[in-house]
Amino acid sequence: MNIRLLLFACLFLFDSFAASAQKIAFISDAHIQNIEDYPELIRSMEAQVQSTRLFNENYFALLAALDDVAQRNISLVVLPGDLTDNGQFINQEKINQILTDYTKRYGMKFFVTTGNHDPALPFGMEQAGHDFLKADGSRNTLTNRCAGYEQEMACYSRFGFYPQPEYLYWESPFTSYVYENYAYDTAKREGGFENRHYVLCDSLTATDASYLVEPVEGIWLLAIDAGVYLPKTMKNGKLIYQGSSVGYNNVLRHKPFLLSWVRKVASEARRLNKTLITFSHYPLVDFNDGASEQMGKAWGNTKFDFPRVPTEEVGQAFLEAGIRFHIAGHMHVNDTGVLKGRDGSHLYSVQVPSIATYIPAYKIVTAESRQEFTVETVVLDSVPGFDRCFSLYQKEHEADLLRGKTPIWNAEALKSANYQTFCDNQFRDLVRTRFIPKDFPSIVKDSIAVMSGEQLLAYVSGEPSEAKTAAGWNGYDLIVDLCRLRYADRLALRDIPSERLAAYARLFDAVRTSDMSSEVVTRLREIAEIFEHFLHGEPCVNFRIDLEADSITECE
């Protein structure tokens, strides 16, 4: 009996030690295209500045991120979905090749999950694009086949979707065994694709790619496939499906089995003293620093990805099932969401920014103990090869001018000294070409964005403002900085001068006290309130989460 107790104590200490030393990199929403082997896949800058992600440079950003992870001697890497542009076979195979290469060279272990772009639809599709660049800068149309669940899971079979001989443990929501009698052969048999289906509605079945894996002693990685692809209509005798972008909001109704499985996994993690780290492509908690309600009222419940905001009911359900620490991508934002449960405990949901947009970064999670985690955010400034397409973009610019077409993007982007600056230039154009005209009320575009800082202050105060209080910025800068904060949170402060923040504060004070009745003042008041939410969110750059103390604190 004493020997058994001693053995249990040793195993307990070993688990705790293994967890405390374990670092895990999270790289999200790479959205790559295989422009290395197929340069004809390079897409236009015109397309890039109207997209919430890059299409070309992010290929090199993924390699730079993996090289940085290798230099830090981190062996566990999680990729929470949207690895490719849209699940195209040609891009998916390149991801497989890259991950296999880094596995062989550095001993990395990769764990992926599904995203709303891979698979874009459950049974795949064909996608035509009209903005691929020719050598002379003109456009070309290409059609690519995109994978569905079965092909994607087969391609990434060695990266978490299926059990592997080296895993200490693996299960899915559909396996029947328990930890104590785990055997690889059984897991392989029960975890096959043919056993990964559920009833979506009526007699219609669908696939779920969720899994739990123990890659090293003491660490449990729980991958939740929160994608639900609902049937939309029939065409030529075939079902046409909706996309899965709303994520968890469809899970409680259409995937209730996930909640009971997650509850079981969390309970087993506690019983076996495992460190449970849960991830999904989709956020589990509000990712707008508590501003979602105000954004919906001000700008409408279809703008700024409002339908993707998880309901509180969803977060409460998973918190009560035992999930306290959750990591996600999808929104391309750097954020930490905290949800208070009905029992007073909290769910901490960390949003990993995309490496394919502003600000490009990935996160490193260190399990200090079973209940304590530190999170570090690594910005990708240096990306070798990020400017490889610039000469082609210059030809695109020239070709459009020759055709009498004014380019919608700023050629100053081609002078970017590094990848982060290039992403910022693309983002500024994105705000101008897409967010302002499509997501904000029209008066923002027609009035606020074209007014100088001095004019805005004078307008809301009814008095001429001193030039020094608002010099050097205008309404467009204000909207860009608002969007920067929404995407990058405190990382954006590197691109917003403190003097400008102080000028904004004076404008916001004037707006709050203004008795002027005008839409400009009303909209500025909304912007001020939402800006303050984004500016004062939870710690999201370098921070510590202590589940036992139920706290989150900044790290130096």
Automatic annotation (TrEMBL):
Pfam families reported in the protein's UniProt record: Metallophos (PF00149)
Annotated Calcineurin-like phosphoesterase domain residues: 23-333
Tagged with keyword Ubl conjugation: no
Signal sequence residues: 1-21
Gene3D superfamilies per UniProt: 3.60.21.10
Keyword set includes Metal-binding: yes
UniProtKB keywords: Hydrolase, Iron, Metal-binding, Signal
InterPro entries the record matches: Calcineurin-like_PHP, CNP_phosphodiesterase-III, Metallo-depent_PP-like
Family: Belongs to the cyclic nucleotide phosphodiesterase class-III family.
Name of the molecule in the record: Metallophosphoesterase
Organism of origin: Bacteroides caecicola
Phylogenetic lineage: Bacteria, Pseudomonadati, Bacteroidota, Bacteroidia, Bacteroidales
